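Subject: Predicted fold for histidine kinase, 418 residues

User T.R. writes:
Posting the sequence so we have a shared reference for the thread.
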Amino acid sequence: MPGRADGRTILIMSTEYRALLPGSLLAEPDPDAGGVARRTPRDWVVDVLVFVLAVGVALAMAAIGYEEGVDPGRNTLDLLLGLLSCGALWLRRRWPVGVALALSAVGVYAATSIGAAVVGYFTVAVHRRFAVAAAVGAIGFAGGFLFPLLRPEWDSSPLWVDLAWSAFATLLILAWGMFVRARRQLVISLRDRAHRAEAEQQLRVAQARQLERARIAREMHDVLAHRISLLSLHAGALEFRPDAPPDEVARAAGVIRESAHQALQELREVIGVLRDDPADEAPDRPQPTLADLPGLIDESRLAGMRVRLDRQVDDLAAVPAGVGRNAYRIVQEGLTNARKHAYGSTVDVTLSGAAGDGLSVEVRNPWPVGVPLGPEIPGAGTGIVGLTERATLVGGRLEHGRTPSGDFRLWAWLPWPA
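User M.O. replies:
I've generated the structure tokens; pasting them so everyone works from the same file.
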């Protein structure tokens, strides 16, 4: 450190240094990051605090000089240089290395600048890499050899004692400053990693929603193609057989009306979600309906699951294809999740509702206890997101989570028009 002092000076310097430790400089902007940020209210509090402490050290050192009989003129000049050094601390955020070197030069003559020099060097140690901070500290330490030549009145102890104290203080400030720097960089790294993970999770959710929309659009394409082909078939029959019996004409007209109504229902579902997918070369297989649900249950049972189906809907085939398909997918996802996370437990599947009231689907299984018996089945963790999007798009709603009784419950309500 710049300058040379006796035991009382070192005690004052240590007190000043300890005042800086409780996070006072931890919130300063790092000049390495490019530019100097505008001072925040916390920065102003920190700057005022270190300035007042440095001025206090300067006044205390000047008082000691007067008590020790130092020449009043030289002591007054020393005090003026010390106060100027304290004022230079307001520039340390913008030019930490320059301010520290200037304070080292002033410290060759002014003992009152020791407090400001501690603050300036600590700032360099926090904001600059080790090589720069060590070089600045070495320059300040070298100034200690010149101090007794310019201010012999302060020479109250052997030179080697003062130099040893100065080296110890320099290394201590350097070590603490590098620790603060490393801690700050770690906090910034963890914060950036957390922000990046959050952004990636949001991106995955958005992609899952987009993929689910595209998949629903492909399913709607198959259904609409079927409905429109029926319309074309029956309309063509009426066109080529205008002399058909009235009952056949009425029957064909009824089929056309029903198919058109269902096609419009399906079209309302696909509006807003249809997306082009040129990468998909092969068409999807025929989409399931609620009438295929018993087959899904039997398939799960053959795979070793214990599934109980409580069917409160008399005719599964009476459920509209779009509603039944969504209910089928919800049950399928619920069984998949139970197989992944609660293997071996009993899964209860409940279907209830009627035309005009809506269709309720519930999949419930006990919350898993302990560790899995086998390796965990991998998954993207976006299945529930897709189901929520699916239910919302058709005007329904979906809930999931742990119940007060300790079960995991997946529940959805889907509109079932009368």
